[in-house]
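Many introductory courses stop at the sequence. We go one step further.
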Amino acid sequence: MSKKSMKKQLNYRKKETPKQEANAQQEGMPEAQAPGPDQPSLADMLKDILSKEDAHAIEQYTAAVLQKFGRYIKSVVLWGSKKTKKVLKKNAKPGDIDVAIIVDDTDVRRMTRAQLKDKLFQRLCEMSHPISKNIHPQPYLLTEFWQYVMDGNPVIYNVLRDGIIIFDNGFFMPLQMLMRMGNIKPSKEAIDKHMYIAEQLLFLCDDTLLTKMSYDLEQAVVSSAQAVLMELGYRPPTPNETPTFVMDFLVKEKKLLPEKFAEMAEKVIRNYKDIEHKEKKKFTGTEYEAMMVMAKEFVDKMKELLTKIRKEKGESYLFEQVEKQIKAGKEEKTKVTRPTDIDLSKAKIGPNQEDMNQQLGQR
């Protein structure tokens, strides 16, 4: 290029862009991202990818995010099931618009990465909700994103392979080009880590059956038996006492049950006690199914007994307070808490669940 041509281009740049440059600096946006006077809007560029309404929402949301976080935003990328326009069935509900937002965390010192990410997610969701309930922001810290790339995280690979750039300051596009050229490959250590995780997840499955599932079955039997015995005026038995109480009071004394229900209680409770005392180290799916059938039959029978006893007294099965709790539980989708539940993350042998989640990343 001649000196004359170069000088002409520089003069043109000085005349055309000072206002844009000032605006970019004020909003914290890189100068290169300031739109030119003839550049189409983001909504126009996305019209063949999203519906007009969704494209306009993404345009508004991206502008709001850039204005709020400025230079910290490295890239905003559209990806997931809605990255390409699809013909939906009539009256079908559209899916979320997944938006990956990569945020520079390299100069953050006042909080941990986990705290920063939680705050980012909360703030980004708060910003998206008034614009569109379809927008599903997914923040990634810059250091975290690089770690996922090196680890061969499948979600990040999908983002790189299929992501549509909404905003980029030069970080995402080079990575995407390298990915498409086949030049981004996970290390041998990353590959080995995936295999290790697979093996440890199988361990967690076995351990969940062995500990938590067997415990839940035992507690279901014990709790239902305690309910009936207390209704009849007996003290609630301990788990070890439950089969004896069922046999002595419900089978022999009151003649409310056949003997097989005391035997069911004994089998389910003994199964867990053997596991608890390390006498039993394996609990198969077939065994679980058999125990589940017994436990369900036992609990159903206890419920039937309690209903019958209450009816004979002229009382309803469920009192108002319990009915309210059940209704609230259904509405809020709450789950039963267990005072002596087993925390697998504290097990002496085997993986820590939190560490596993961290290694798996956002899959």
